Amino acid sequence: MQLGRFPRVRLGHLPTPLEPMTRLSDRLGGPRLWIKRDDCTGLATGGNKTRKLEYLVADALSQGADTLITLGALQSNHARQTAAAAAKVGLKCILVLEERVSQPTEAYRHNGNILLDRLLGATLKYVPRDTQMVEAGERAADDVRRAGGNPYIIPVGGSNPIGALGYVGCAAEILQQAADLGIRLDRVVHATGSSGTQAGLIAGFDGMQSGVRVLGITVGRPRGVQEKNVAALVDETWAHLGLKGAAPHDNIEANDAYFGEAYGIPTPAMKEAVQLLAETESLLFDPVYSGKAMSGLIDLIRKGTFGKDENIVFIHTGGQAGLFAYEPAFAA
Fold first, then answer.
1. 62 annotated active-site
2. Domain spans of the chain?
3. What is the pTM of this model?
4. Catalytic residue from among 76, 195, 290, 295
């Protein structure tokens, strides 16, 4: 895949561990479960966006940018990691944050990632729900230009062909770790939202002809919309990598049965999954992404979807800081 030819700034603690979840596997009586600890990437409590930011920040620096601008929901893990990356390399940072969750609590508005964004020195710009976020980012960039600065806009979730390179690299990392452990991987499961993690994994696993299946559990969009978004970004990433032929689409799967009422709204199954992972594996999962995706994996195992001898890797995309913004949801 020759990822070394793409500019990259080292921000994360990589490779992250690949660990067995033996107690959870035993509790569920299902397949052999593993966890890829991308909550351990090390950038201001870590998370999956760090891998994307290594390539995006390198691109920003190559263009002489002095300000990173990115977009997300109020409790965006991506926004927090972008603020941390900016601080790490000495850039300014503006976060355009959409008040996407209706009737937010005081904890949601002021704790969790918001607290960390402020500590990291980012400028926060709040916009109402259903704002056209691309246009909001452009307006923030225009303000920077008028002040004599040079902005670099990172899309929601860092999800473009440059950012997706981080998860092409993660696919290669997982395959090497599995080989070192002497295990055959059957499937990788993760939370899918802005599509960059899923597109990068698919481009990586399929580009290396690994045979590993990728299952995204959606956190806010219906299956048809999510799979269309992932397919478009797989195509762009495949072309960016310079791989020959059309990108295969038969490994694109998004399950939309587990995000509940809407993005960011807790579900009983999510709360059960967060509690179960804490009790069995001492793992802290976030309420918006990894918690809902794990609730999907648990339910699918209980339904007998997977073979008992399969090796399934769940990618922990981080976001534990969000637990503190959702404390009322876990108080009862």
1. no
2. 3-47+160-331, 49-158
3. 0.96
4. 76
